[in-house]
Amino acid sequence: MVVGLGSGSTAAFALAGLAERVAAGLRVLGIPTSEATAALARRLGIPLASLDQHRRIDLTIDGADQVERGTLHLIKGLGRRAPAREDRRDRQRAPDRGRRRV
Fold this sequence. Notes:
Layout: E1 2-5, H1 9-23, E2 29-32, H2 35-44, E3 59-61, E4 66-67, E5 74-75, H3 83-91
Parallel strand pairs: 1-2, 1-3
Antiparallel strand pairs: 4-5
């Protein structure tokens, strides 16, 4: 499974959980959205790849800055540090796996 790895504090918690599963035998390749995410994933033992190597992403893990009341739409971008990589990663998401409302 190819997993897009987001950035920020929420994504860091998800990476820690993912690393536990990888250590237990889960086979994934992570595509990080920032150098900080890549460094954390390497330290945690999560194998990495790039969009050039894998054009299809099965699942993306990332946080949201706000949740819109009533619709539960997730709002991103208030504190973005890695916008270009996140946008590129989101465009490469598998066509049958669109954005989900939470």
